[in-house]
Amino acid sequence: MRFRLAFASSDGERVDSHFGAAESFRIADIDTESDDYELLEMRRVKPSCHGGEHELSGFAAALETLSDVSAIVAQRAGPGARKYIEERGIRVYQIPLDIEQALCLLMEEKQWEADKWRSHTKN
Q: Strand pairing of 53-54 and 49-50?
């Protein structure tokens, strides 16, 4: 099975963005059968938080762009954003590492089994 994740990243290499302040997400697929991953594209979003204030419509727009992911990995996600995202069946992780290190950690812990990620890619 393949699971798709979105990493809040300014450079496509590191998880270095707060979910609400992120302007881009690096997309990656995990293949649970081969224990491998593939780094895919960068997706741009409009930040939904501005100086501590957030807009639910901004969360909705970001999640529309990330509608095919099972989990979002960010440097940080505030309680409001986290609740909004998780109510829509998407897991949230705060892992401020390089994207490949975060992927290895999630795979090592087989996190999709622990959390029973709701959705997976259609590929």
A: antiparallel
Within 10 angstroms of residue 98's Cβ, the number of other Cβ atoms is 15
Residue 99, classified by CB atoms within 10 Å of its CB into exposed (0-12), middle (13-18) or buried (19+), is buried
Question: What are the structural domains, with CATH classification, of the chain?
Answer: 2-115 (3.30.420.130)
Region 78-94: what's the mean pLDDT?
92
Mean pLDDT of the chain: 88
CA distance 90 to 112: 11
Q: What angle do CA 11, 116, 86 make, to 5 degrees?
A: 60
Instruction: Tell me the per-residue pLDDT of 20-45, one tens digit each, with 9 for 90 and over.
Output: 999 999 999 999 889 899 999 999 99
| Residue at 40: amino acid letter | L
Q: Residue 46 and residue 33: Cα distance in Å, rounded?
A: 34
Q: Report whether 83 contacts 89 (CB < 8 A).
A: no
Tens-digit pLDDT profile for residues 39-63: 999 999 999 876 666 666 778 899 9
pLDDT at position 108: 87
Name the β-bridge partners of 120. none
